[in-house]
Design goal:
alpha/beta; 36% helix; globular; Rossmann fold
């Protein structure tokens, strides 16, 4: 399975794709710090920079799963909540990439605030835009706590597959796929990462409730403040705050693998 990511950040989707046994074809990220992280961990992937200036037609019909945590600042309660008026509202660029690539699967992620923004208008537009491109869409609100993370971190996940992919895809999805995943999450069941290839089981024990490096008395000599480490520290904190929880994406990817396996048996 070929995977590619947009608004890749430090590679949460790409890491989960690696756990799922998929091939990471390319990532697209404009932030210089995140670019360095991506190039270090995924050196064999094509690296794109500005999505607004990238032509993805070279990948047409060659990508199975396209993911993207399109910028959440326009809808985040931590931001100014300018919504579609925010210059960082880049879902239209993700939609353009989908049109050019035509992946079988599309996974989008954003903050929970998008659901209620402007009377659910933006949420409905995202769903209708994807449906207009021929995708069957199922949105979910999933917290990081569903994979035992010590924080809630609720996010909206848009999961879609091309409705021309297989005639009986919906019935298979109800039996094995997205609907089942939703009911499991709603019932509060925990998920296991034990089947992930080349992945050590994550543990959240002794995980700090606050980032250990912060402004003020952080135990680091003041002589280091203001030079390279300080810049790395601030950038890493920001990157972590913007990142998805890859364990959540991995559960979605495992369901996709089950779905794809069922299609082989039709």
């Amino acid at each position: 399975m070929n995977h590619a990511s947009l608004f890749s950040g430090i590679g949460g989707f790409d890491l989960a794709a690696e756990w799922a046994g998929w091939n990471n074809v390319f990532h697209c990220e404009w932030n210089p710090f995140a670019q360095k992280v991506l190039k270090y961990h995924f050196p064999n992937s094509i690296s794109y920079n500005d999505i607004t200036k990238t032509d993805f037609t070279i990948h047409a019909n060659k990508i199975d799963i396209l993911t993207g945590g399109f910028p959440c600042q326009p809808y985040s309660t931590a931001g100014k909540r300018l919504g579609k008026a925010d210059e960082r509202h880049l879902f239209p660029e993700m939609l353009r990439a989908i049109k050019e690539i035509r992946p079988r699967w599309v996974i989008g992620e954003n903050v929970r605030g998008l659901v209620s923004w402007d009377g659910e208008l933006v949420f409905n537009e995202v769903c209708s835009d994807l449906e207009g491109e021929g995708y069957e869409i199922q949105p979910f609100i999933i917290p990081a706590a569903s994979v035992n993370a010590p924080h809630q971190r609720y996010r909206i996940w848009f999961i879609g597959f091309r409705n021309d992919y297989v005639k009986d895809a919906d019935s298979i999805g109800q039996k094995w796929g997205l609907h089942t995943w939703e009911s499991q999450n709603a019932n509060g069941k925990q998920f296991s990462e034990s089947n992930a290839p080349n992945m050590q089981n994550p543990t959240w024990e002794n995980f700090p409730t606050e980032y250990p490096l912060c402004n003020g008395n952080d135990g680091i000599s003041k002589r280091l403040d203001g030079i390279t480490f300080s810049k790395w520290r601030s950038e890493s904190i920001k990157a972590g705050g913007n990142a998805i929880v890859p364990q959540v994406a991995f559960e979605i990817f495992k369901t996709i693998n089950i779905f794809e396996e069922q299609l082989k048996n039709l």
